[in-house]
């Protein structure tokens, strides 16, 4: 498996298909926003034998903070370290560009079990929960904000 920038239209469509296959995490409004972001923001894809297995989309907040907008791994390959590898790749990429922190927003609805896995993923990789915004203006529901310092 290797990680590379998203370049081709078929790669972008493969990312959307991955997300559509994970309806517990991505609703229609999210898919619409993702479609826009995949066209306009920096996205990296995990590829094996020509198949896109996962993706991560990032956007600078300012000169020092980089936000992870979207991240997903196709269902059959979840739990195999692909998400961790994509996150490590983005951390190195961000460090090379002098970013100091990574930021990610995720569902703050603690009763919705699929997002327990998402929160644990980030927490196990050094992200710290810094805020709960209820409601998050763009979402109309709770959002948890996580950050990770990457400056060495």
The SSE string, one letter per element, is EHHEEEHEHEE
Number of helices: 4
Give the fraction of residues assigned to helices. 25-40%
CA radius of gyration? 15 Å
Spatial gap, N to C terminus: 27 Å
Average pLDDT for all residues: 94
The dominant shape is: globular
**Strand-residue proportion:** 35-45%
Structural classification: alpha+beta
CATH class: Alpha Beta
DSSP, total strands: 7
Largest beta sheet, briefly?
A: 7 strands, mixed
In the CATH hierarchy, the architecture is 3-Layer(aba) Sandwich
Strands of the largest sheet, in order across it?
1-2-3-4-5-7-6
Q: Provide the CATH superfamily.
A: Gcn5-related N-acetyltransferase (GNAT)
Poorly predicted segments: none
Q: Tell me the CATH topology.
A: Aminopeptidase
Which oligomerization state do the chains in this entry correspond to? single chain
């Amino acid at each position: 498996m290797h990680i590379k920038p998203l370049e081709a239209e078929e790669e972008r469509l493969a990312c959307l298909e991955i997300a559509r296959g994970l309806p517990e995490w991505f609703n229609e409004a999210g898919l619409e926003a993702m479609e826009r972001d995949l066209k306009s923001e920096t996205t990296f894809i995990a590829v094996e034998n020509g198949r896109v297995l996962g993706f991560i989309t990032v956007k600078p907040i300012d000169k020092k903070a980089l936000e992870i907008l979207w991240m997903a791994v196709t269902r059959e390959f979840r739990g195999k370290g692909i998400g961790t590898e994509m996150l490590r790749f983005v951390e190195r990429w961000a460090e090379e560009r002098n970013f100091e922190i990574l930021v990610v927003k995720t569902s703050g609805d603690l009763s919705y079990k699929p997002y327990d896995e998402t929160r644990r993923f980030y927490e196990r990789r050094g992200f710290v929960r810094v805020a709960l915004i209820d409601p998050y203006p763009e979402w109309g529901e709770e959002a948890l904000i996580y950050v990770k310092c990457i400056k060495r």
